[in-house]
Design brief:
about 450 residues; alpha/beta; nine-stranded mixed beta sheet; binds zinc ion; eight-stranded mixed beta sheet; about 25% strand; 2 domains
C-alpha cells in the first residue's frame, strides 16, 4: 500500500509525442523507473479536452458534465435569466475568475480531501489542498512567463519545490502542474523544440524523485493532447452577425440574444435566447428553423455540432450526415441518417459505457457516445456544442499572441493522453479513461472509494 502520491500533470502532453520520445531514449529515467517496472497506459480524456475541466476526472473521478463545469468558459442560463450581473451567471477561468474554479467544484470530494497532507504546485484546481506551494511566485512569475513566453523560471521553481517536498513529506499527496508543454504548443507547435524540451524537463524532475520512491505512487499524466493550428474562425463574430452575441471579454453588451463561450479554442458552447427568454434550453428543432445549424455547418473550421432535440436525444450533425445519441437506463443507443458523423457506420442498440469506449476507438472520435452524453448532463452546457476540425480553432480575436496549437475538441490527437504509473496495473485494454485513475489511486492507497463516480478502479 502506498503512503504517498506524487502526480505530475504534464499539461498538454500528446500520447504519440511522449511515446516517440521514450522510443528515442530522450526520457531515460522515466523509462527505467516508471514505465519499465510499472505501466504506460493510453488514456482518453474528457470532452472538452481542456485544462481545468480535464483535471476533474483525475482529481474527482467525475466528468466535467457531472460536476457542472462544462468548459473553461460557460454561461448558466437560469442564473443569467434572473440576473445577468450575478457572479455565477457566466464564467471564464482564463482571467481573474480563475480563483472561482475551486468554489465551482462545490461539495464534490477531490483527492486532496483523502490525505492529511496535500499540496498543489502551480495548479488552479486545488479544492481541499492543505498547502499551495510557491504561492507568491505563482502570482508573480506565472503572468510574467505568459507575457514573455519564457517558462524557464517557472520550471526552475517546480524543480526546487518537488526536490524539497519529496525529502520532507513522508505521507501525503502532491499535485504538480508542468505548464510549459501546453504553453509552448500554443505559442509555436506541439512539435516545436521548446515543447519537446519541456517533456525532457519532466525527466529531470523524475531524477530528483527516484531516490525517494519508497512507499510512493508516482504518476505522470496529461489532461489533453494538442493539434497544430493554422486557421482561426471568429465563431463569436459569426454568431454576432446573426444575433447580438456576448463573449469574453465583451460580456456587457445590452440585450444580448446569444452567447459564445470557447474552451481551449477547439470547442465552444453556444447559448441562445428563445421565445421564453433566457432561462430554458433552446432545442435543436428551433435552431434548425432559425437557420443557425445551416449557418454553422457551412463553416470549414467546424467538424461537428451537437444539441438536444425534443425527444431528449443528442443530435450530432456534420455537413453530410446526422446522428442521434440516446442514453437510457445506463445504456447508449445511436442511429444516423446520411453519412455517419461519428464514424461507427452501424446502429448501436443498447451498449454499456465500457463497450462504448471500445467501439469508439475504431472511429476518429474517442469515447464520443459517453463524452457527448456527459457534457449535455451539465445544466450549464450550451444549447449547441461546437467541435473544431483539426488545423482550425474557434477564436480569431482576443487571443494574444496568436495560437498555433489547439485543444478542446473531440478528436483523437486532442483526446489521447499518456498515463505512466510506477507500479503494475494489469489492464488488458487498448485505452482507458482518465476518470478511472482517481478510484485506482484511492485503492492503491487503501482508501475507501466513494459511491457514484464516473470512473472505475483499474484493479
Ligand atoms: Zn492550453
Amino acid at each position: 500500500m502506498f503512503k504517498r502520491v506524487i502526480f505530475l500533470l504534464l499539461d498538454g502532453a500528446r500520447w504519440d509525442v511522449f511515446n516517440q520520445l521514450l522510443k528515442e531514449g530522450c526520457l531515460p529515467t522515466v523509462e527505467k523507473y516508471i514505465v519499465n517496472p510499472g505501466t504506460l497506459l493510453k488514456g482518453v480524456t474528457c470532452f472538452p479536452s481542456t485544462t481545468g475541466p480535464a483535471y476533474l476526472p483525475y482529481l474527482c473521478g467525475l466528468f466535467p458534465g457531472t460536476m457542472n463545469i462544462p468548459g473553461v468558459r460557460w454561461l448558466d442560463k437560469k442564473i443569467f435569466a434572473r440576473n445577468r450581473l450575478s457572479r455565477d451567471a457566466l464564467r471564464s477561468y482564463m482571467g481573474h475568475e480563475a480563483f472561482l474554479f475551486n468554489q465551482d467544484m462545490e461539495n464534490f470530494l477531490a483527492l486532496f480531501d483523502f490525505f492529511s497532507h496535500s499540496a498543489t504546485l502551480f495548479s488552479r484546481v486545488g479544492k481541499g489542498a492543505k498547502i499551495c506551494l510557491a504561492r507568491k511566485e505563482n502570482f508573480l512569475f506565472y503572468p510574467l512567463a505568459h507575457y514573455f513566453h519564457n517558462w524557464d523560471r517557472i520550471n526552475k521553481i517546480v524543480h526546487r519545490e518537488i526536490k524539497k517536498w519529496v525529502r520532507e513529506v513522508k505521507e501525503g499527496f502532491l499535485f504538480a502542474v508542468i505548464a510549459s508543454i501546453d504553453a509552448y504548443s500554443h505559442l509555436y507547435s506541439p512539435f516545436h523544440h521548446k515543447t519537446l524540451k519541456s517533456y525532457i524537463f519532466v525527466n529531470k524532475l523524475v531524477v530528483e524523485i527516484v531516490p525517494y520512491l519508497k512507499d510512493t505512487l508516482l504518476i505522470l499524466a496529461s489532461d489533453h493532447g494538442l493539434s497544430p493550428t493554422k486557421k482561426h474562425l471568429d465563431l463569436a463574430g459569426l454568431i454576432n452577425t446573426y444575433k447580438r452575441c456576448i463573449y469574453y471579454p465583451l460580456i456587457f453588451k445590452p440585450k444580448p440574444k446569444a452567447a459564445e463561450m470557447v474552451s481551449g479554442n477547439g470547442m465552444s458552447h453556444l447559448y441562445f435566447k428563445n421565445s421564453k427568454g433566457w432561462a430554458e434550453r433552446t432545442l435543436w428543432e428551433e435552431l434548425e428553423k432559425e437557420g443557425i445549424i445551416k449557418l454553422l455547418m457551412k463553416q470549414q473550421a467546424i467538424d461537428f455540432i451537437a444539441g438536444l432535440n425534443e425527444k431528449g436525444e443528442i443530435v450530432v450533425s456534420k455537413i453530410d450526415g446526422e446522428g442521434r445519441i440516446l442514453y437510457k437506463e445506463d445504456k447508449f443507443y445511436y442511429n444516423f441518417s446520411g453519412k455517419d458523423p461519428l464514424g461507427f457506420n452501424q446502429e448501436i442498440n443498447g451498449i454499456c459505457s465500457e463497450e462504448g469506449l471500445f467501439k469508439s476507438l475504431k472511429t476518429p472520435y474517442p469515447d464520443s457516445l459517453v463524452q457527448l452524453t456527459q457534457i449535455f448532463k451539465a445544466e450549464r452546457c450550451g444549447d449547441l456544442v461546437v467541435s473544431a476540425k483539426e488545423g482550425f480553432d474557434l477564436r480569431a480575436h482576443w487571443e494574444i499572441p496568436e495560437h498555433y496549437g489547439t485543444h478542446g475538441a473531440l478528436v483523437a490527437n486532442q483526446m489521447f493522453v499518456p498515463i505512466a504509473i510506477n507500479t503494475k496495473v494489469n489492464v488488458n485494454k487498448e485505452a482507458i479513461r482518465t476518470v478511472d485513475i482517481f478510484p485506482t489511486i484511492l485503492r492503491f492507497c487503501g482508501k475507501k472509494i466513494p459511491e457514484g463516480l464516473d470512473g472505475r478502479s483499474l484493479y
